[in-house]
Write a structure and sequence with these properties.
This protein has 70 residues and is mainly alpha-helical. The chain is built from three helices and no strands. The longest helix is centred in the first third of the chain and has 24 residues, at 2-25.
């Protein structure tokens, strides 16, 4: 019973991660997969979702900086 619950939870997490990644890709971030790999190489204990959060923060900060320049 516990094994079934663990497997189901793992599957739900995979689905959640895929949906989150697709949502982030809809923002048009170029080279998202490469950026995720870069962050994960720098932080081996980090999850893909944590890496995506960092990338989103970087992108938001970069967008704000571009708006200030314009």
């Amino acid at each position: 019973r516990d094994l079934h619950r663990l497997i189901r939870r793992q599957r739900q997490m995979c689905i959640r991660d895929r949906v989150i990644k697709e949502f982030v890709q809809s923002f048009g971030i170029k080279g998202l997969d490469a950026k995720i790999q870069r962050v994960l190489q720098q932080n081996p204990n980090m999850t893909e979702i944590q890496a995506i959060k960092i990338i989103m923060l970087e992108e938001i900060c970069a967008s704000k900086a571009e708006l200030k320049v314009a």
